[in-house]
Write a structure and sequence with these properties.
Blueprint: E1 11-14, E2 24-29, E3 33-40, E4 43-47, H1 57-64, E5 71-80, E6 83-94, E7 97-98, H2 104-112, E8 120-122, H3 131-137, E9 142-147, E10 156-164, E11 167-177, E12 189-195, E13 198-205, H4 211-223, E14 225-226, E15 242-245, E16 250-255, E17 257-258, E18 264-265, E19 268-273
Parallel strand pairs: 1-10, 6-8
Antiparallel strand pairs: 2-9, 3-4, 3-5, 5-6, 6-7, 9-10, 11-12, 11-15, 11-16, 12-13, 14-15, 16-19, 17-18
Length: about 290
């Protein structure tokens, strides 16, 4: 069977959940550029995820020198100074046939049999009890959770989940939205931080709660109810189903990053803080 000109690469879905389990394997998420390698007739071509040719002679030569026939590899290109490295995490085509319908473990076994030498590297498994904690501790971009037995899909898949390293800091609650559907207590907290005496709006916080906490926070916020927004010059505030509160409750929040307009991306509640005065909450810098 002839090697195809192009196979759409599988993409991971971003998640703010943190979990492990026997049905998942974890790999380091490298901070580089996705790179697909196609080798046929002892010549290798390299492409970006968008099928744009990449000129990397040392990597192409190393792939061309691998034993066997036609080959398609998937991985990440990184640099250390001026030296490029190709970190391979999957194989799509091997010796004249597609292997994308084989399970994850079978494809990893095929990949482990290839004699990769620098500048080619094999992406190892991360077997820590909390892989995302190691990622953040060691300065990685994050980890990828891959479901055991999953095939290689040519789409963004829920069987590959990327857990990026998070930032965390305290925020002050200045209001909340009504719950919807079967949710109880409240929908989302409206949180912010102080700057030059003004409470600036940082976004809506709607994940990380259990039912007991939702009800407890609603009761506390009802006791702190006020008629006007405590946020100064806020943009992006919801317009319907909103309740304002005296900014006294402090919560610790994990989030991926700040957006360009100063809002939290993918925030989740870590805990309610009882040991920090609201007025001491400011935007922290890394």
């Amino acid at each position: 069977m002839a090697i195809p000109e192009w196979l759409e690469p599988m993409a991971a879905t971003l998640t703010d959940q943190r979990f492990t389990g026997p049905e998942w394997l974890f790999e380091r998420k490298l901070d580089g550029i996705r790179l697909l390698a196609y080798r046929s007739a002892a010549a290798a071509q390299l492409f970006s995820r968008n099928h744009l040719p990449q000129h990397l002679p040392d990597i192409a030569a190393a792939i061309a020198a691998l034993p066997g026939g036609d080959l398609i590899l998937d991985g990440e290109l990184t640099w250390h100074g001026s030296d490029a490295g190709y970190h391979v995490f999957d194989v799509l085509w091997l010796n004249g046939e597609a292997v994308t319908t084989q399970g994850l473990e079978e494809r990893r076994a095929l990949l482990s049999a290839l004699p990769l030498v620098p500048p080619l590297y094999r992406v190892p498994l991360v077997v820590d009890e909390a892989p995302w904690e190691r990622a953040c501790r060691e300065g990685w971009e994050g980890v990828i959770a891959k479901r055991r037995g999953s095939i290689y899909e040519h789409r963004r898949s829920p069987h590959w989940l990327k857990m990026k390293c998070e930032e965390a800091q305290e925020f002050v609650v200045g209001g909340f939205t009504d719950p919807r559907g079967a949710r109880v207590g409240l929908g989302a907290l409206l949180v912010g931080y102080y700057e030059h005496g003004n409470l600036l709006f940082a976004g809506k916080l709607g994940t990380g709660f259990d039912t007991s906490l939702l009800l407890d926070l609603r009761a506390r916020l009802d006791r702190l109810a006020i008629t006007a927004s405590p946020f100064t010059g806020a943009t992006g505030l919801p317009k319907a189903g909103v309740h304002w509160a005296t900014p006294e409750i402090v919560v610790e929040v994990a989030f991926l990053e700040w957006t360009p307009n100063g809002k939290l991306r993918h925030p989740r509640l870590l805990r309610v803080r009882h040991d920090k005065p609201a007025r001491e909450v400011v935007r922290e810098s890394r």
